[in-house]
Amino acid sequence: MRRGAIFSGAAVVAVAAAGAAAVGFGGGGSDGTAEASQRPAATTKVTRQTLVAATTVEGELSYGEQVPLESRAQGTVTWLPAAGATVKRGGTLLRADDRPVVLLYGALPLYRALSTGVEGKDVKQFEQNLRALGYTGFTVDEEFTGATASAVKEWQEDLGVDETGTVDSTLVVYAPNAVRVADVSSRVGSSASGEVFTYTGSTKVVTVSVDAGESDWAVKGAAVTVTLPDGKEIAGKVASVGTEASTDDSEDQPPNDTGTDDAQIEVTVSIVDQRALGKLDRTPVDVAYVAQERKDVLTVPVAALLALAEGGYGLEVVEGGTSRYVGVQTGLFADGKVEVSGDGVTEGMTVGLPK
């Protein structure tokens, strides 16, 4: 009776060296097991653990999509930030005729002048920013009151501009968060009106194009592992998932392939530990996500599995000075381990490893 194994996929590699013959139960013991003719060369334990099978996809680390900064300031550009500079709330994006254009946070553009008597969501957005910058004496709501105008004058005095109590788009530009200057398309001396530079978010993210039909794993908050070119692994989480699918137009796609199988959606992964990313601003990375998980199951190394002549798989159980074969059912294969179950298979059991 010889021991061996016949498996598919990764399991073949792990056990091929042990030979391809199978063991059988024919003529074995009365309990449905068979006694081995000799002790295995090595043994291992049946352990209980969580098995995780990960799938890896390609991604790109960067600061994200570049967005043009449209200035409505009048006059001539007298100062611009350098590429790579980060501007936060209240910071200066550029200077026009030596007057600052200031960054505030929000989704609504400043589409009208804000002054006493104006009401609306844009007023509340502005007042939230003014309060965040430390100015008080007014109520944060949708009404621009005289108290708001007084606070605005204090802010304008600090900025060194005319204290009008009115805010318009020549003074303020909104963005969702802090921005990082990407490509500067204007220069000092140019017109201050129009696109002056492009910007991105101020933190690095990973973007992944995923087959729309295989994107069930991509839900907001799902944990992933990002592997950098130097092999360093960093934890990440899915921050957003695109809602529109586009066709994969990469060169490795078959010509004239316009089927829905090519539909791709973009997944954005956030990285909390930005320092761990080092100095790389843009680079290809690998992103691994959990494809399958089996919690708290009995496992053995794949190499411990034996192919049975009757079909299925077994283990060589070593007890005292003897060993015997028992049949097992297999589950998930991951990281060189396999989930096993069967009558009499217990945690801590000693099993043989084929030579």
From TrEMBL:
Q: Where in the cell is it found?
A: Cell envelope
Q: Domain Peptidoglycan binding-like, which positions?
A: 120-169
Q: Which UniProt keywords apply?
A: Coiled coil, Signal
Q: Where is the signal peptide?
A: 1-20
UniProt KW Nucleotide-binding keyword: no
Q: Which SUPFAM superfamilies match?
A: PGBD-like
CC per GO annotation: cell envelope
Q: Where is composition skewed (Acidic residues) in this entry?
A: 246-262
Q: Where is this region: Disordered?
A: 239-262
Q: Which residues form a coiled coil?
A: none
The highest taxon in the source lineage is Bacteria
User: Which Pfam family would be a valid example here?
Assistant: PG_binding_1
Which PANTHER family does the record associate with it?
EFFLUX SYSTEM COMPONENT YKNX-RELATED
Please give the name of this protein: Peptidoglycan-binding protein
